[in-house]
Every structure is written in C-alpha cells, then in structure tokens.
Amino acid sequence: MKWVFGSLEAIWGIPILGGVLILSLAWTPLAIMLILHIIGLVFASKENRSKTGHILGILASSVGWIFGVGMVLHILAAIFLMIEAGKNN
Questions:
Q1: Which end of the chain has fewer surrounding CB within 10 Å, N or C?
Q2: What letters, b where the CB count within 10 A reaches 16 and e where it falls short, cover 2-23?
Q3: Which domain holds residue 34?
C-alpha cells in the first residue's frame, strides 16, 4: 500500500506533470489521496508501523493547491512512504 501511495505522491510532485494532472482533474486527486492517506494512517496505527509518510501525505493533500509548497510536500511524502515501505518488508 505504501509503495502505491509513494508512487502516486511522486507523480503529483513532478513540477509540470503533477500540476497539470491535478489541475485538469479539478483537484480530485488531492481529495482522493487525502482519504487514502487517512485510511493508511489508521492501518499504520493499528499495525504499529511508521506514520510519517501518511501524515506528510495528508499535509500535501491539504495544501497541495499552493504552488511550490504542495510540490515539496508531495515529494517529501513520496520519499518517506518509499523508505517506510522498504523498511516494512
């Protein structure tokens, strides 16, 4: 699950591509990712796993509409999710 979320966050963090995708889909990806990160946070809490990536993902989805800030948070969320996914294996 973290691999998929991390990959999606990496896509949203790509400066031009991520912005075009999010804008063309009327910010729907941000709402969907917010819901998915909340679900992931609940699962991580129940399993006593790292929650940092999901928390950053929630922040990125919440302020993703701010150019620059959203991009940086998406990239950070992707990095942390990928690291956490690698450690969980």
A1: C
A2: beebbebbbebbeeeebbeebe
A3: 2-88
